[in-house]
Amino acid sequence: MSSQDIEEDEVDGFAEDAGPPRREWRRAWRSMVRGGWPIFALLILVGVTFAAAFGPELAPKDPNRQNIIARLKEPLTENRAGKVEYVLGTDALGRDVLSRLIYGARISLVVGLTAVFIGGAIGIVLGMVAGYFGGWIDDVIMRLADIQLAFPFILLAIMFLVVLGPGVVNLVLILGIGQWVTYARIARGQTISQREKDYVEAARALGASTSSILFRTILPNILAPLTVIASFNVASVILAEAALSFLGLGVPPTVPTWGGMLAESRDQLLAGRWWLATFPGVAIMLTVLSFNILGDWLRDFLDPRLGENG
User: Fold this and answer.
1) Domains of the chain, CATH where assigned
2) Model-level pTM?
3) 97 by DSSP, 3-state: which?
4) Which helix (H) or strand (E) element contains residue 227?
5) pLDDT of 14-35, one tens digit each?
6) How far apart are CA 257 and CA 266, in angstroms?
């Protein structure tokens, strides 16, 4: 029996036979249709992604163009010609809210996905190394994780952004590095449960290198739960970006972001300018909710023990 056959026999927990890709895609689609809500979440995320990718083509106006004459226009206000010029109104500087909302989707998705990728890559590698080798290596990596968990993440992010200054790159790096602990702990636990399995022993007997065992033998069998965690983490990173932008520590003020739009609306809420906070707030809520719904569905779909897939 080859190592590949042994590996397929020993996969447990989240892992399943992949099967033909086309059949897996059909099974995933049927599962989403049965759930109902995952389709709704997928449509929202497709719309947000489309807005982020084609923002310049979709936005009716320059998001940073100021027009003091048209400041604080309500949504659907008509101009003298009877045409609606600002669908979602304007802010205190006369900038089009719809255009800024579309451009803000780009920052939220880029920061969320990139930070999760960075944090996931660091955490998975460190967690697998800790779980596979154990001993002092495991102790050092896990103590580093404990030290980071001892500090509130949002305070750490604020401290580093104050020192380094606002910017998309700094924000992505800080949010990414702050996420590695979650992935490291899960990857470590999964690696410990897999490292003594027969398929891993077979790979060692065949002379596979340590890197090959970790990334070609063990990683595919622990990737499913990590993928589920990543889907939830995107939502939390988007919220963190919005919070930091709200505090003025995210991206520069000239870059439209949903959190920045909420920050700029603070002084206008008491005056009844509801649209300035409502639209970016709804955009954040729907995006985060969609990622969470897809994370729930993905957990059920990848875990055969829940019996959702039939």
Assistant:
1) 3-44+105-255+277-306 (1.10.3720.10)
2) 0.77
3) helix
4) helix 219-246
5) 344 444 567 777 777 777 778 7
6) 15
